[in-house]
Amino acid sequence: MEGTTEMEIEEPKSKKFGLKNSIQTNFGNDYVFQIVPKDDWSSVAVSLSTKAVKLYSPVTGQFQGECKGHSDTINQIAFSVSSSPHLLHSCSSDGTIRAWDTRTFQQVSFIDSGSSQEIFSFSFGGSNDNLLAAGAKSQVLTVSFLNLLVLFWDWRNGKQVACLEESHIEDVTQVAMSMVEVEEYVNACRYFIPSRDALFNCLVHFVPDNRNKLLSASVDGLMCIFNTDGDINDDDDLESVINVGTSIGKVGFFGETYQKLWCLTHIESLSIWDWKDSRNEANFLEARSLASDSWTLDHVDYFVDCHYPGEGDSLWLIGGTNAGALGYFPVNYKGARTIGSPEAIFGGGHTGVVRSVLPMSSMKGGPAQSRGIFGWTGGEDGRLCCWLSDDSTGINRSWISSALVMKSPTGRKKKRRNPY
Description:
It comes from Populus tomentosa. There is one protein chain. The chain is mostly beta strands. It has five helices and 30 strands. It is globular and about 55 Å long. It starts with a helix and ends in a 32-residue tail after the last strand.
């Protein structure tokens, strides 16, 4: 009877995607940090460890041009201002936020926060869409003191309108480390930290559908929600604080009204929150082990990002291997709170850690001629890889699928085998 029962168990099948193209962006040991799309999908911008941004066609992969000007690591890029869709913005550890005209690849404006500050992230928003917020670090850093800032400008005239200095500072001092401890922490978090200083990040995001609300998240393990209406200050406009408990690596919003918040940490844990009432909905402290246990073919070494398809409450956790393979893992943060078997697998394109994933098939407004292209990935091997999701000709036909689809609800997981 036991043998018959074992034969009836079916493992959910994963969709495997065909590699259409692989582009070597540079030579040597250069990294691809981030890939972002232009609103009309005529270009994708790619930030590199060479302190440059390159643009490519998302359909053909053709190189379009290069934006160069930063003197230090580029930490974020985005096409952010809807009224000027040709403008690409970038921020850097050189203390500047620069705007580039992607028609000429020339810098058209920049905001300088001062040589004593590094800018890790930025976001456009505000009730009148006139605010540019940035997460920054003061260069004043000792064993016992670290100063993280949230800066605000009116992007229309470049005038700074506020600087929040107190919301993260007290807790940050509690986790400030000696240089030996810094080195140990960087080694433990080596997959996403390009330099020692980058672990002292401060992330900012205006909330979709609530443009006057700003989220800041930091190495201190805190996520703060600010109201940016009127004059902005630490005392009056800090609405709530969520304590994650460990250094925060990435955050994002999802759900029908974007009321839910996901948080990835530098120790590869995942938590889900309702930011409106600061309620924790799920904690996956051993997310990497859970994902690895559900992937019978490989082991998850790190997480790249989370993917929200833009409707419903579905969420995927994107995990990778040191060899360059990727898996899309469904996150069940209700009820049993599990990380399921990968519903999509990408392999054969990268030879190292993947840093960025840009899906096209689930994005609204994608070009008609991109039909069949699932998306792009970039990594520490300096490669950009384009993945197909149909049976088009002229691709690596070892992995073919029709779409990224939900696994069958009747599928049951087979116990993972240990080959050692």
